Amino acid sequence: MTQQSSRRRFLKAAAATGALAGLNATVLAQGQNEEIILLGGYTRAWQGYRLPGGQEATDGGNPTLTLQRGTTYTLMWQNGDGVGHNFAIQDSQGENLQVLEPLTVQSDVFEQINGTGGNESVSLDISNGNVTGVGTGGGGNATGNQTGGQQSTESLVSETEIIAEQGAVQGVRFTATSEMAQYICLVHPNTMVGDVEVQSGGGTDNSSG
Ligand SMILES: [Cu+2]
C-alpha cells in the first residue's frame, strides 16, 4: 500500500516536472475513474462483458458500443477460444482508424475488473502502457490533476497485434470521435464486427479546469 502510493507520487512528480517525457499519457489514467469496456474475443462473435454507460451486456454477440464523443475509453478483451484475433476501429468506409494506444494487460487484472458490477466505478493504474492494478468503488482519491494532454499520435496504431493464446488479454485506449463506425477483428471481419455509435450530446467531462 505504502509502496504503491509513494510510487504514484513519484510518477505524478515526474509528470509535473516533465522529466519523463512520454509518460504523461500513461499517468493521466491514475486515480481517475475510467470508462472501461470488456469484451470476449471468440471467432463466432465478440462477447460483451462490460459495456460503456452501464449498458446491459447481453448474450447476443457483437454488442453495439455506445460512446460519448471526446470521452476516453479503455477497452480490454480476452481471447476466449485460442484462435488468433486482433482489434481495430473503423470508419464508415471500413478504413482502420489510427487511434489506438496499445496496453499490456495481465489476465488477472481483466478478471478482477470483470468481477465488478457494471455500474461500479473502477480506476486503473497504467504505467508505461501496462495496466498494473485496479481500484474499485469509492473514487474519493480524485486529485484533479488531470492535465488533459493530448498524447502524441506516434504511439497510436490502427490495428493491434494478433494474439492467439486462450485467456490472453489485450487492451487499447482511445478517445471517441464521430468518425468511428465499427469495431472489428481483422482476422474474422465477417463474424467479429460490431457497431460503434458515438453520441455528441455534451457528454464530455472537462470538470478539472
Ligand atoms: Cu478474430
Automatic annotation (TrEMBL):
Transmembrane segments: none annotated. SUPFAM superfamilies: Cupredoxins. InterPro entries: Cupredoxin, TAT_signal, TAT_signal_bac_arc. This is Twin-arginine translocation signal domain-containing protein. It comes from Halorussus caseinilyticus. The lineage of its organism: Archaea, Methanobacteriati, Methanobacteriota, Stenosarchaea group, Halobacteria.
